[in-house]
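Here comes my example:
=====
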Amino acid sequence: MIRLRYENVEVDDKVDTTQDGSDAITLKTRATYTSGDFNGFGMTLEFDDVTSLKSVNYPDKVNSGESGPTIADPEGTGVNQVYISYKAMDTTAKYGRQRILIGNQRFVGGVGWRQNEQTYDALSVSNNSIKNLTVFAAHVYNVDGITGTNTDHDTNLLNIAYKTPIGKATTYYYDVEDESAEAGSKTLGASFAGKVDAGDAKILFNVEFAKQSENAKTTDYDANYTHIMGGVSIAGITAKLGLESLGADDDAGIGFATPLATKHKFQGWTDNFLATPSTGIDDLYVSVGTKVAGIKLLAVYHNFTTNEKDVAAGIKDGDEHGSEIGFVVAKKLDNGIGLSLKYADFSKGDDALGKKDTTKLWLSSTYKF
C-alpha cells in the first residue's frame, strides 16, 4: 500500500507570526506479509516507511526546532506489526506488535489517519464461542506511537460486545498505565449503538456512558464521559446530530483522558483537543453525508464549550472553546486508486480559553496492491 499526501496547516497566531503555517508532502509505503496456517499458528510481518518529498521544514514532533505548527508525520522506516498468532475453537490469540482497533476507536485505536500508525506490543485474545458475543482482552506492555516513540505500559484492556437485531451492546474496562510518563487511568463504560428501519428510512442511534478515575500513580480524580447521537438515513443521505461530553473533576483540574484513542476522528479534524482541557469539553456536532456519482461527500459542524468551571481562571461552565466546520470529498477509482480532499476550519471562541483560528487541508492519493 502507498499513500501520497499533501498537508497544509495555517494558524492565526497574533503574537508569533513565525508559527503561522506549515506544509508537507509525504509518501507512506507499507509492505505486509502474512503466513499460511500451520496447525493453527501463523505470523504477520509489516514494515512502514514515511518519506518527505520536499525538504523537511516543518515541525513533526521529531524535528522540533523547525518553525510553524506541527504536522505529525516524521520520516522513518520501522516495523509496524510483527506478531505470532494462534487460532483454535473460535479463539484467536496474538503475541507481539499488533494493530488494536476497539469499536469506533474512541478509547483504543491506531491513529490510521497519520502516515505512521500507532501499534501495540501486546498479548491479545479474542473469543467468539457464543453466538453474537465477542470477548476481547489484551495486556499491552509497549505502545509504538505515531512519531516512532515507544512508551512502556502496564495496560489491560477488556471489551465485551453483543450483537442484537437492532444494534450492538458493549461494555468495557480499560486500565491504562503509561509507565514512561507515570500516568494512567481506569475507565469503566457501556454503550448501545445501532439502527432501526422506519419505512424507507433508517433511524440511527448511539448512547454511551463511561466513568473514569485515577490509577495508583496519578492524582485522585473522577470524570464522566457521555455520548448521545441520533440520526436518519434516507434516499442516500445520512444526517446525524450528537453531543459528546468529556467531563472533568473541577477540584483536581483534570479532564477525562483518552490517551490511546484515534483522536482525529473526534472533536474536529484540526486536532485542537488532542488533550482534554482541565475544564472538560462538550462537543455538539451535526454531520451530513451522501454519495453522488460514486463520490463521497461529507460535511461536519462542531461547537465546543467547557463542561466544568475554573473559578480561579475566570472560566464558567458553557464558555466557548470555538467551532469548526469540515468537509471531505473522496472517490475510489476502478484502478484501485483512492483520491480525497479534506478541509477543516476552526474558529476560536473566548480568549480566556487560549485557542487560535486554524485551518487544515489534505490532498491524498492511496493505492493498495
In short: The two ends are 6 Å apart (CA to CA).
